[in-house]
Amino acid sequence: MELFGNPAEWLPITFAALMGLSILIYVVLDGFDLGVGVLTPLVGDKEKDRMVASIGPFWDANETWLVMAIGILLVAFPTAHGYILQALYLPVAVMLIGLILRGVAFEFRAKAPAHLKPAWNKAFFAGSLMTSLSQGFMLGLYVMGLEYTLFTTLFACITAVFLTVGYSFIGATWLILKTEGELQRKSVEWAKGGIWGLMLGMAAISLATPFVSPRIFDKWFSFPEAVLLMPLPLMSAGLVLLLWIGLRRLPTADDSFAWFPFAAGTSVFSLAFCGLAYSFYPYVVPEKLTIYESAAAPESLIIILAGTAIVLPTIIGYSILAYTVFRGKARELRYD
Amino acid sequence: MDTLLLSRIQFGANISFHILFPTITIALGWVLLFFKLRFSRTGDTKWMDAYRFWVKIFALSFAMGVVSGITMSFQFGTNWPGFMERVGNIAGPLLAYEIMTAFFLEAVFLGIMLFGASRVPSWVHTGATFLVAFGTTVSTFWIIVLNSWMHTPAGFELRDGVAHATDWMAIIFNPSMPYRFFHMLLASGLTVAFVIAGISAFRLLLADRTDGVRAAMKTALVLAATLIPVQIFVGDLHGLNTLEHQPQKVAAMEGNWETGPNVPLILFAIPDDETRTNHFEISIPGGASLILTHSFDGVVPGLNDFVDEDGTINHPRVAPVFWSFRVMVGTGLAMLAISWLAVFLMARKRRGVDGLPKVMLIGLVGMTFSGWLATLAGWYTTEIGRQPWLVQDVLTTAEAVATVPAGMVLSTLLVYLAIYGLLLFAYISVIFYLARKAAHGEAVSAAEPRGHAATLGKLAEQA
């Protein structure tokens, strides 16, 4: 393995990239199904069923990316894993309870006696909301260096709201793609509202990160980096503008371009994520622990990497298969 | 209470709650595959009726297992950072392989298995069912590998207190792994057999004597009667393996304080960790020696051998291990008795399921979740039996615990307990609700050929 240079250098980078990829896939995929969950109180019972049907076959696999991401943190950066999760003890607990509630509510709302369905619908919404808010809170606290002060906590509360709005936005764009008629029209309206939250949230984090850390400030505002990085904010701004224009023309009569908001939303999420990743590299615990300091032993990382190289393409392959089987407008979920 | 004890209770509560559902899904996946294959082979709709009913319970159990499993992957970090810091080089790759080879497989194909029957050809649906069942079993394999390694660590060396892998084959096929793996798979098979038998008995008692219910009932009882003797045999081998590698655990299971020959088999006692004796002991002379060494004067290890000269105790608290072991064995014997009696009654005069008297059906309903009881008791025996170690002779539980304040752990613990209690209640109620609903007509409509408009409408309502 000396072929590729020093394994103590390239292995941590590889795993940081894999973890980043898993988090990004998670944020987009579970982002849309959490967002759909947050939007459910806005509609009646029949439409709720349709919304749940649009995410039913996917949510479980989507959440697996969270396990993958946390798994990589756990196995590749064990000391960082302990540090981050102890610092985030309470928000993690809130998130887990949220995930439990919504995960089981999927099943119970369809299988429990009819008079209990409204209660499970509430649990589904509450779970989705708790998960989104706590993830946003963790994002904010992470950006602030995992320190609890009045200011950082307030900032984390703000990102909690914005990430929830962001998830609702991508959830709405998913519904534009997967539904039709009245529900699709409503989804367009939700997406129009959500886009403002998305912009404000991204602006807040983009402004906050350089000012919290002089190191990040230097990374963005020194020459030639500043010029080379320009495409990132410019492309994001362009996509948001296109979304803003596009949403005004949706839904179209022949349902063309129904895919566009989701695709564009996903791209905006990805760009924002790249920006964050660039800011924090090489730290896995902001300003405290780099990926190199916290990486597990090379002989353990190699054995995981060998497996990943074979398995990850397979996972992506059969995930695409599953999305293909359930392509098109969401239909009623049936067991036969 | 301190952070250590609270964290242990919290993790114990989580993992106890979690294991209930994999115990069902591991074997139920294979039973569903069996139903599907029987349907493909015979074309008899009764197998599809059984499939449709049990796939719902599978879906419900799977969701419960997923969400409680995610909780655990986070608790390694929030409550037990020392575990990954010290043995992460071993545990990490094993967990990673579990996620990559099993978790995704089952999660992705579950969607097709549950909702894809009308969207993909029948053989693809059968294939998805197989992959989900296969995935749960592979998942079991990796988790059991890691757990067994914590009991009988092998294939590693310590550098500055941190474990580094030296031989992956020795790590994976560590001394207790094969026993634990088959013991758990059989436990899952038995749990599912009794759940299916119990719920089918419940439906029979509600006068739901459709062919689908009979088919499921017969499958379950034959499965139970076949697996239970195998389980007793494998359990015995597992015990002998434990005697070799973790003698202090066996000493606690037997409630034996002094090493020596002719050790009695204790049927009842109240072990006292303070006075280091048993109260109110009822025992069979020489029994433990006979079971563990296959000879009356075989030497059985005693707990007093595991106390250092400075008074440090290197064995677990005796009472919980002693009692959970007896609950497990007792439940297993009850399973043996009822399943063999039931199969005998079915075989007599070839009357099949109709040969089962009402009292037997009521007994089976009572035994519905007996597999859970035995599985939990078995896990308590082996896990509490490993204390004070987290990884035997490598890392103690106390060294691995997080420095989170006790109050914080207590608050999350109480919330988890409340939610788990509620969910367990909801889960069991919904299973019996689905059974009642099915008994009142669903099975009849589902038995009609597919494509019939009215039937489809009804099915859509039920799904």
Characteristics:
heterodimer, A: 336 residues, mainly alpha, 1% strand, globular, B: two-stranded antiparallel sheet, 15 helices, 72% helix, disordered C terminus
Summary?
The complex is a heterodimer of chains A (336) and B (463). Chain A is mainly α.
Structural features, described:
The complex is a heterodimer of chains A (336) and B (463). Chain A has 336 residues and is mostly helical. Chain A is 79% helix and 1% strand. Chain A has a two-stranded antiparallel ribbon. In chain A, a hairpin with a 3-residue loop joins strand 1 and strand 2. In chain A, helix 11 runs antiparallel to helix 12. Chain A is globular, with a radius of gyration of 20 Å. Chain A starts with 6 loop residues before the first helix and ends in an 11-residue tail after the last helix. The mean pLDDT of chain A is 86. Chain B is mainly alpha-helical and 463 residues long. In chain B, 72% of the residues lie in helices and 6% in strands. In chain B, strand 3 and strand 4 form a beta hairpin. Chain B starts with a helix and ends with a helix. The relative contact order of chain B is 0.13.
